[in-house]
């Protein structure tokens, strides 16, 4: 039985950014097995480990040599490959050359009565130790980093300087070099707890040596240690920690030997809005806040140390000093900001550029006020709500120039809410300001009130229309301003019951940019923005499980409003799935008439030419025109579908008793006009012809 080996490969570097390290882990998990498979290297398993200063590949059950391989390739027919004298033609020569053979090495074989030429390649087994150095070096260069650069005088690029390399197959060191580092059997331990070099006697012991040097070499294990430490602190204090996934991942990849410790800040800082405190701890220092049973912020927090556990008291004291300084700043900024009402800061927005071609944030605020007024009228808000909407639109960006937000950027909007309340604005205005950036991402909560939703909608729509007007809309996979996310947020708010016309809002927003002096083709940009929202709506509906042809059938009716598109698509899908009879009636009635109609004749039916069998259909169509239009006006798409389905009987009777293609041209054309009128009733609802393939 062939001997199996263990491979250990470690890239030692200076501290890798936390999220880059996580990405590299995931890349190697796919890259390493694929590379071994491509090189025909048999192995039992592969593991990827890491810490902030290292990436480790462990491969177990690695064979001595690659598997010998026999490859056969079928070529052209023999009569094409050889001429009448048996000499190889260009076809045979080219085929052989492509397989690394000479024409005389080709074989002839008969397949189903036809003779072909075949090429057979025998690929011998190769010692794995000869292949691994190049493969391992390839791993270093193949990792994709968000940002990499050259270090010192070396030409190679990497995320951070490479300081050491371990490359061992059992106890044999494999020759690998990169950017001045040459492979050996020496790894390096924790900077504080086990500094310096540590010898690895054999590949299988690399992880043990690393662990003995106070490095936890697995991301999942470091996370477990942190979570267990946090749980112990929670049990001891009776408080609950907040561990946001993104911050936790960052902390996990910032420490090689993590140790959660509880710390304290002065209670006086709890007078500052807790969002600033949490921002200072989570965003700036990567600490975890602790909350009491009522989910109120306490003056205790958790740090994750990467230092000597024996020095825990000193570590805690140092971190508390850092937090105290940050919270001192926060308290000072907050108190300074409160010396002026929120409206005071609006004029200062003229010093902040929104976008170089679209002016300042103050101009954006002015546009939002105009758009808010139009939205209030469209939504038929009460006088009080309309006033709150306009006021919130005017003030929603004011906190961007306050001291607190300049220093703690993640609390924009939230601080505006506090300052609005302190300035005597209504609770609804303050709440709308605080929530106007929502939803920020998929699954985020929508603003709670209609006023809040409309402020958020106006803000997002102004950005979308503005950037499209200066040619900065998304292209392909590029969406640097996250406009697709903003559009999805708007569609979600419309579907949540915000009763306004998006098309009218787009017109109003573009008009505000034109009044400001921005130069653009209004009709072309409007069409782009409308199509942008329609496309987002289509994607959202498909993600929700709605069939593509259902969506296409609704869009064929020329609907532009996302909420209407969604309502109609879901109603049509519901009819298809749960009311097969109604759907069958709709599809059949439409298909029979649509197959014969002639749009060029128009739909002006001459009542005097109608025969007795035609009148029931004419009457049913006339009635349906009114009832369907009324149902659509009332946003009752299901009722419209029901009215259309009722046309099945009269259209069946029409075709049973009437010869449409009568010899009399006047009768024939009149009957075709009746069918045109029949189909036109469907046109404002959906194009059922696009769903015929599903039947």
Automatic annotation (TrEMBL):
EC class (word): ligase
Reactions catalysed, as given in the entry: tRNA(Gly) + glycine + ATP = glycyl-tRNA(Gly) + AMP + diphosphate
GO cellular component, one term: cytosol
Main location: cytoplasm
GO biological process, one term: glycyl-tRNA aminoacylation
Keywords from the UniProt entry: Aminoacyl-tRNA synthetase, ATP-binding, Cytoplasm, Ligase, Nucleotide-binding, Protein biosynthesis
EC number in record: 6.1.1.14
Pfam families: DALR_1, tRNA_synt_2f
SMART domains associated with the record: DALR_1 (SM00836)
DALR anticodon binding domain residues: 589-691
Cell compartments where the protein resides: Cytoplasm
GO MF term (any one): arginine-tRNA ligase activity
Similarity-based family: Belongs to the class-II aminoacyl-tRNA synthetase family.
Assembly and oligomerization: Tetramer of two alpha and two beta subunits.
Full protein name: Glycine--tRNA ligase beta subunit
Organism: Senegalimassilia faecalis
Taxonomic lineage: Bacteria, Bacillati, Actinomycetota, Coriobacteriia, Coriobacteriales
